[in-house]
Write a structure and sequence with these properties.
By secondary structure, the protein is mostly helical. It has a single domain, classed as Winged helix-like DNA-binding domain superfamily/Winged helix DNA-binding domain (Arc Repressor Mutant, subunit A), CATH 1.10.10. It contains eight helices and two strands, in the order ααααββαααα. It has a two-stranded antiparallel ribbon with strand order 1-2. A hairpin with a 5-residue loop joins β1 and β2. α2 crosses α3 and α2 packs across α4. The protein starts with a helix and ends with a helix.
Length: about 170
């Protein structure tokens, strides 16, 4: 079995990259909106501070996997394709990164590492993958729904800090 370019780019130990982070942010924002409301890509991008070029690719992956629906046109955008409680963090990870793996040798065996057939570590990494996959399958997008958006919350926090600092200056 030949590994894809995407798999070769990833670290052998699991690393949750920007694609997963941005996908979770986008879905958390969509989950907090009124049911069925179409949210523009620009609104998602602005509220969750996701670079536009990343967001386009991520949303395409989420549409293909049936996690979000898209609508084209001037009133176009995205909405969840199913209830937020039915979308797990594991679903999101696998939609944008592929199968969950903490070590590539566990998934690809001898095609990735010559020592996999005799390696004493493989069972450890497979158990770690299994535990992580089980946990991520219990956390839903509904659990972390974000109506306000990261950028707005950060701005509010910075305003509060400025107010507190001004209050302490004699």
């Amino acid at each position: 079995m030949k590994t894809s370019k995407r798999e070769k780019e990833r670290s052998s130990l699991m690393h949750v990259g920007r694609r997963v982070d941005y996908a979770v942010r986008a879905l958390a924002y969509l989950a907090a909106q009124p049911s069925g409301k179409i949210i523009s890509k620009a609104e998602i991008q602005k509220s969750q501070d996701i670079p536009f070029h990343f967001l386009s690719k991520i949303m395409r992956n989420l549409v293909v996997r049936g996690i979000v629906n898209s609508r084209r046109g001037t009133k176009g955008g995205f909405r969840l394709a199913k209830q937020a409680a039915m979308i797990t963090i594991r679903d999101v990870y696998e939609a944008v990164e592929g199968p969950l793996s903490v070590m590539n040798c566990v998934v690809h065996g001898d095609t990735y590492c010559w020592f996999s057939s005799v390696c004493a570590q493989i069972s450890v990494w497979e158990r770690a993958r299994s535990l992580l996959a089980s946990y991520l399958a219990t956390v839903s997008i509904a659990d972390i729904a974000d109506r306000e958006g990261l950028r707005r919350r950060l701005s509010r926090l910075q305003s509060r800090r400025s107010f507190i600092l001004q209050d302490k200056i004699p």
